[in-house]
Amino acid sequence: MKYQPRALIAEITHRCPLHCVYCSNPTEMRRRSDELSTADWISIFQQAAEMGILQLHLTGGEPLARTDLTELVRAARAAQLYSNLITSGAGLDGGRLDELVAAGVDHIQLSFQDSQEGPANEFAGTRSHALKLRMAEIIRRRPVAFTVNMVVHRRNLDRLEEMIAFAEGTGARRLEIANVQYYGWALRNREGLLPTREQLEHSIQVVEAARERLKGKLRIEFVLPDYYAKYPKPCMNGWGHQQLLIDPSGRALPCHAAMVIPGLDFPNARERDLRWIWEESPTFNRFRDESWMPEPCRSCDRRARDFGGCRCQAFLLTGDAAATDPVCTLAPQHSIVEEILERVNGSARPDWVYRVDPA
Amino acid sequence: MSELERNRVPRLAPGCRLNPAGGAEDLLLIPEGALRLKGPARAIVELCDGQRTLAEIISELQRTYPTAQPARIETEAVALLARLRDRGVLEVA
After folding, report:
1. pLDDT in tens, A284-309
2. Does B39 touch chain A (CB under 8 A)?
3. Bridge partner list, A58
4. SS3 for chain A, per residue?
5. Contact check, Cβ <8 Å, B16/A145
């Protein structure tokens, strides 16, 4: 296999009791009645392991909304996958956590919307912060890797120092500070979420100082908002290069947002085996090599490093999925991003819309 | 990057484990992905069972690899384990 898949992102449900304004789920979500069965998922995990996939990311929606989650984790472990549960904590308690740990969950990633309860509940559109704190208390006492994920944006980035101190108190060994990425619901709320340049520069200094101070205690990963980058992010480490996502209804996508790209036929894992989807399907091959690339990507010496950036972002911002990602300062359409940044760094913030739950 | 003391007992941190032996490659699975283990690295990590001290791990390796220089085994094992500890993959009691 020229491209060896390494991770399976299993979006096992779109149901979620939270309504976060920056949710990365598509705005058209899959209903409960469309969801794959337990047996479907177990078959997918087994196929994934046979293809050499190592990591399974169980995500959603809220994966705990599926009552068969423990069974899925057990099947993943039996297939020798490393399982990573990405959760808001809603639906967890000590008993369920013990079951998941016994079933073999390796790593739990718990999200927080803020260090302060008021803003956290506002961004989540639900009163979920206090519950998350209780969940951190029980997770830290279990033999499982524990990461806290904090989503940052214009409305909380100024309080980053306080948020890092908060994360230290949760007992997590890893902290992911993720700036919102502009897909799905977040794109709708972009103008209210994108930080200013000044906020961003300050946050970089805060993270550098915290990394130094917390060396050996808490590892910090920091995801920057790519709108401010000089070059685009190597999205998914390349389209169809390492990662495969299955949505709640079985559709296979090269990334979370790929549904937005028109003209792609997303194969379904109910109808096709995973190996065919990965190796043969036109969708996974569409942007895989360099033949689709326009200039300046085609002759750029960074093309094997960032792959021309993100295809979904290129489509969302320019209307052409095969354009150079306009966040790149070399992109012919970079002025689109410059105009957005000009607005964000100048004007007042607009209201936002909350994610709704699928039926 | 402090030196590892020989009477300490290392073991893999929660959520860090070796892939099953005998596969195409030796990997240490961790929350961020996987670390590829080369040469004797797997054997070294396998000895970090939360029972043996670092001194015992080194002697065990020296017995397993009698043709290698004992001092070199010690230097390499200590360097690998210190790196893993600094990454949060190994806990030292």
Report:
1. 999 999 999 999 999 999 999 999 99
2. no
3. A10, A85
4. CCCCCCEEEEECCCCCCCCCCCCCCCCCCCCHHHCCCHHHHHHHHHHHHHCCCCEEEEECCCHHHCCCHHHHHHHHHHCCCEEEEEECCCCCCHHHHHHHHHHCCCEEEEEECCCCHHHHHHHHCCCCHHHHHHHHHHHCCCCCEEEEEEEECCCCHHHHHHHHHHHHHCCCCEEEEEECCCCHHHHHCHHHHCCCHHHHHHHHHHHHHHHHHCCCCCEEEEECCHHHCCCCCCHHHCCCCCEEEECCCCEEECCCCHHHCCCCCCCECCCCCHHHHHHCCHHHHCCCCCCCCCCCCCCCCCHHHHCCCCHHHHHHHHCCCCCCCCCCCCCCCCHHHHHHHHHHHHCCCCCCCCCCCCC
5. yes
Q: What is d(CA A244, CA A247) in angstroms, rounded to the nearest whole number? A: 10
Residue with tokens 């000590």: A94
The partner residues of A166 in beta bridges, in order of sequence, read none
A145 at interface of B, judged by CB pairs closer than 8 A: yes
CB contact under 8 A, A147 and B29: no
Above 0.85 for ipTM, yes or no?
Answer: yes
Q: What is the pTM of this model?
A: 0.94
Q: Does A6 touch chain B (CB under 8 A)?
A: yes
Q: What distance in Å separates the CA atoms of residue A246 and residue B23, rounded to the nearest whole number?
A: 26
Identify the segments of chain A with pLDDT beneath 70: 1, 347-350, 359
* A52 close contact with B: CB closer than 8 A: yes
Does the beta carbon of A143 lie under 8 angstroms from any beta carbon of chain B? yes
Q: Give Cα separations from B90 to A166, A350, B46 (angstroms).
A: 24, 47, 12
Stretch B73-79: mean pLDDT: 94
CB contact under 8 A, A145 and B14: yes
Per-residue model confidence (pLDDT) at position B90 = 94
Distance from the Cα of A216 to chain B's closest Cα (Å) equals: 6
